[in-house]
Write a structure and sequence with these properties.
13 helices, alpha/beta, 3-stranded mixed sheet
C-alpha cells in the first residue's frame, strides 16, 4: 500500500471517530445546556469536516502531473490543510458568541453523571486520535495528517478544560466557569489554527523546506563539481523540488553533465527524505587551465560530430590542435568540409590561444554486433602478438575485433592493465603508442580503443 492510500486510511478512521465524539458531545450539551460541552462538540464536528476536506484533497493530490499542473497536484493537500485552519477560526468565533451570551445571562447548565461519562470517554478517544494521526503523519511525511493531529491535540486540552468547568459548576455552583472554559477553548483553537495557517502559508509562498547551505554541502560532495553557485528548494518536506546551480570544468560534455546530475540527485535522496525532483544547472568554471581535448569534444558534440585522437602541439607561433572528425558517411565531401570548418571556428572561439585547428575528416563507422570471420580472428592474433612483443610488461586482455559497417575495415577494442604507481600521463602515452603501432602495422584496423586500468583491479 503506497503512502497516499495509507493517508486515506488514517483519515477515514479519524473521521469516524471524530463524528462519534462530536455527536456525543452535542447531544449531551443540548440536554444539559452546557455551552462549553456544546462548543466542544462543534469543535469535534469541525475535526470531522477537516477529515472530509483532507480525503478530497488527498484524492486530488495523488493525481500525476499534467499539462496544467506540471509539478503535480501536491499543493491541493496544502490548500486543504489551510482550509482546516480557516474552519477553526470560524468555529472559534461561534464559541465566543455563545460564551459571551452565557456570561451575560448567568444561566446554569443542568449536569448529570452521563455528562461526565461522555466527556471522559471522548477525552480518551481524542488522545488516541491525536497520537495515532500524529505518528502516521510523521511516518508518511504528510503535512495534512500532522496539521489534523495538531488540531485534535488541542481537543484534548479543550475537553480537560470543559471537565474542570463542569466540576466547578456541579460542586461549587460557579456558573461562570462554563463560559470561561468556552473562552479558554477559543484560545486553544486559535493557537492550533495559527500553527496550521503558518505552516501551510509558508508552503504556498515557497518557503524553503531545506537550508541552502545544507543542499550546497551535499552537491559539493560530487567530485566533478568545482563550485556550488546557488542551491534552492521549494514545496513541502515530503515533496520538495530542489534547484542546484554548479560550476564544472570548461568543455564538460552533455554526457558528463548527465552523469553529474545523476550523482547530485543520488546525494540529495541519500541525505533527505521526500525529494520529488532535483534539477541541476551548469556553468563553465572560470579557471585559466583549460582541458583542450575536452573542450573540443564538447564543441563537436554540440554539432552532432564525433572526435578522437585530439592532440595539441605548441608551435613557435601558438598552439595547434589536430583531431580526427567523424561525419555521417552519406554526406558529400562539400557538406563534410562545411561541418568540419564550423567545428574549427567553434573551437577557436572557445580556445582563443589555439591559433590553428587541423581536422582530418573520416566517415562515421559503426561496429557490427559480432564478427567471427577468419580475417577478424587473424587480426586479433596479430594485434595481440604485436602488443606483447613491443610492450611486454603490460597485461593486454579482452581484445575484440569487429567489422565497421561494410567498409572493409575493422575496429579493435581492448584493455591493458598497468602498474598502479604509473602516472596517468605515462599510461596515456603508452596507450597512444600502442594505438599508433596497431594502425601502422595492421592497416585494416581503422579504429583502436584502449581502456587502461591498474593491475590491482585485474588481479
Amino acid at each position: 500500500m503506497d503512502a497516499r492510500h495509507q493517508v486515506r486510511r488514517v483519515l477515514i478512521i479519524t473521521l469516524v471517530l471524530n463524528l462519534a465524539v462530536a455527536v456525543g458531545k452535542i447531544i449531551v450539551g443540548a440536554l444539559t445546556g452546557a455551552v462549553s460541552i456544546t462548543a466542544d462538540g462543534f469543535h469535534s464536528l469541525m475535526d470531522g469536516s477537516s477529515n472530509l476536506i483532507g480525503l478530497g484533497a488527498n484524492a486530488i493530490a495523488g493525481k500525476p502531473a499534467d499539462e496544467d499542473h506540471p509539478y503535480g497536484h501536491r499543493r491541493y493537500e496544502t490548500l486543504a490543510a489551510l482550509a482546516v485552519g480557516i474552519l477553526l477560526i470560524f468555529t472559534a468565533y461561534e464559541i465566543i458568541t455563545s460564551a459571551i451570551e452565557r456570561l451575560t445571562s448567568g444561566a446554569k447548565p443542568e449536569l448529570s453523571p452521563l455528562s461526565f461519562i461522555v466527556l471522559i470517554a471522548t477525552l480518551g478517544v481524542n488522545l488516541f486520535i491525536s497520537r495515532y494521526e500524529g505518528a502516521a503523519g510523521k511516518r508518511l511525511n504528510s503535512e495534512l495528517l500532522i496539521a489534523d493531529a495538531a488540531n485534535t491535540g488541542a481537543d484534548v486540552f479543550v475537553t480537560l478544560s470543559v471537565l474542570v468547568s463542569m466540576v466547578l459548576v456541579a460542586f461549587f455552583n460557579w456558573t461562570w466557569a462554563d463560559p470561561v472554559a468556552a473562552l479558554i477553548i477559543v484560545v486553544l483553537i486559535g493557537r492550533a489554527a495559527w500553527q496550521i495557517i503558518k505552516q501551510t502559508g509558508g508552503v504556498l509562498v515557497d518557503t524553503a523546506p531545506y537550508k541552502s547551505g545544507e543542499l550546497a554541502q551535499f552537491a559539493g560532495e560530487v567530485p566533478a563539481v568545482r563550485k556550488v553557485i546557488r542551491a534552492r528548494s521549494r514545496g513541502t518536506i515530503d515533496a520538495a523540488f530542489i534547484d542546484i546551480d554548479v560550476e564544472v570544468a570548461p568543455g564538460t560534455t552533455a554526457e558528463q553533465t548527465a552523469a553529474i546530475t545523476e550523482a547530485i540527485d543520488e546525494k540529495m535522496r541519500a541525505h533527505l527524505t521526500g525529494v520529488s525532483e532535483v534539477e541541476v544547472h551548469f556553468q563553465p568554471s572560470g579557471y585559466d587551465e583549460r582541458d583542450y581535448a575536452q573542450t573540443a569534444r564538447a564543441r563537436a558534440d554540440a554539432l552532432g560530430l564525433n572526435t578522437h585522437e585530439v592532440r595539441v602541439i605548441d608551435a613557435n607561433y601558438g598552439k595547434v590542435m589536430e583531431m580526427h572528425v567523424e561525419v555521417p558517411p552519406n554526406q558529400t565531401l562539400g557538406e563534410a568540409h562545411e561541418q568540419a570548418s564550423e567545428l574549427e571556428s567553434s573551437i577557436r572561439s572557445a580556445l582563443p590561444d589555439v591559433v590553428e585547428v587541423v581536422t582530418h575528416i573520416e566517415p562515421k563507422l559503426t561496429e557490427s554486433s559480432g564478427d567471427f570471420s577468419r580475417e577478424a580472428k587473424d587480426l586479433k592474433v596479430q594485434a595481440l602478438t604485436l602488443l606483447r612483443d613491443h610492450f611486454p610488461t603490460a597485461d593486454w586482455h579482452e581484445l575484440r575485433v569487429s567489422a565497421l559497417n561494410g567498409s572493409g575495415y575493422y575496429a579493435c577494442t581492448l584493455h591493458v592493465a598497468l602498474a598502479a604507481t604509473m602516472t596517468l600521463e605515462d599510461a596515456h602515452d603508452l596507450a597512444e603508442r600502442a594505438e599508433m603501432l596497431l594502425r601502422l602495422e595492421l592497416p585494416r584496423i581503422a579504429r583502436v580503443t584502449i581502456h587502461t586500468e591498474p593491475q590491482e583491479a585485474r588481479d
